[in-house]
Amino acid sequence: MINGRELMNSIVKNSLNGIVKTTQMFLSSSAKKTKEELDCVIRPMVREDEIVFEDLHRRARSRFLWLKDPQDWYVAHGQKMSTWYGSYVDNGPPIVYKPAPMLYGALQLQMPMDTDCFFPENTPPEWIGKKGTDAYISGVLVAPEHRNQLVGTKLVRYALAEAKKSGMERCFLIRHKDNWAAANLCHKVGFEVVVPPESDDEYLLGIHLK
Fold first, then answer.
1. Which domain holds residue 67?
2. Span 24-38, mean pLDDT?
3. Are 112 and 174 within one domain?
4. pLDDT tens-digit profile of 178-187?
5. Cα–Cα distance measured from residue 132 to residue 78, given in angstroms and rounded to the nearest whole number
6. d(CA 171, CA 78)
7. What is the bridge-based pairing of β-strands 134-142 and 101-110?
8. What is the edge-to-edge ordering of all strands in the sheet holding 134-142?
9. Does 22 share its domain with 66?
10. Which residues lie closer than 8 Å to 42 by C-beta, 6 or more apart?
11. 181-74-83 Cα angle (round to 5)
C-alpha cells in the first residue's frame, strides 16, 4: 500500500519527467528549424531589382511596405537569378527582358528622417538630437524560405553602417511587441527601447551610431 508521501513523490517524479521530455522535444524541434547562415550580397537597390521586389513582397506577405522610393532600399541576394521580367528602357524599345538576382530580403532606410511628428512626448532627451541627424528603418522584408539565416541581421547592420557613413547620429525603428523575431534581431544588433508601448502595441527602438 502506497502512503501519502510515496504518492506525492511519484507524482512529482512523473511531472519532472514530463517537463524534461517536453523540453527535449522543444529543443530538438528548434534545432531542426535552425538553418545555416546564408551567404548573400548586400547592396543598394538598382532598377533591375524593382520588379523582382514585387515577387519578394508577395512571398513575404507584407501588408505595409511598398516600393515608393527605390533609392531608400537595400537588398540581399545570392547567385541565383530570377525568372525573366519586363522593364522599360529609356530611348529604346518599350520593353526589354533581362534576368535579375533573386532577392532574399530587402530593407528600407530613410535618412535623414522627418522628426517633426515622430517622437512621443515622453521620449528621453538623450534620444532627441539635431534635426537631420536621425535615420529610420521603416521596414525589413525577408523571404520565408530564407528566414533564420541572418539575412535580416545582415541587412540591418549594412543599413546602420551606411547611416553612420552619411553622418547620421542615431537610427530608429518601430517594433510590434509580439514580433519576437524582430526583438531578437534588434537585441543582437544593439537597439535599445526608447519608448515602451502605452496605448498601442509598438515599441520605439533606437541605437546611437556615434
1. 41-208
2. 53
3. yes
4. 788 888 888 8
5. 34
6. 27
7. antiparallel
8. 41-44, 73-81, 101-110, 134-142, 170-176, 202-208, 192-195
9. no
10. 74, 75, 76, 154, 155, 158
11. 95
Supply the pTM of this predicted model: 0.73
Residues 120, 25: one domain? Answer: no
Which amino acid type is present at position 149? Q
Amino acid, single-letter form, for residue 93? P
**Beta strand pairing call for 170-176 and 134-142:** parallel
Could you give the number of structural domains in the chain?
A: 2
Does residue 156 sit in the same domain as residue 176? yes
Greater confidence, 170 or 11? 170
User: d(Cα 81, Cα 149) in Å, to the nearest integer?
Assistant: 19
Q: How confident is the model at residue 19 (pLDDT cuts 50, 70, 90)?
A: very low
190 burial (CB, 10 Å; 0-12 / 13-18 / 19+) is: middle
Single out the residue of 204, 107, 102 nearest to residue 159, CA to CA.
107
Tens of pLDDT, residue by residue over 113-126, are: 876 667 888 888 88
Pick from 139, 135, 173, 118: which is nearest to 63 by CA?
139
Higher pLDDT, 52 or 12: 52
The cell numbers describing 189, all together, are 544588433
Mean pLDDT of 62-88: 70
* 106 and 14 part of one domain: no
Based on the fold, state whether residues 128 and 45 are members of the same structural domain.
yes
Co-location of 169 and 88 in the same domain: yes
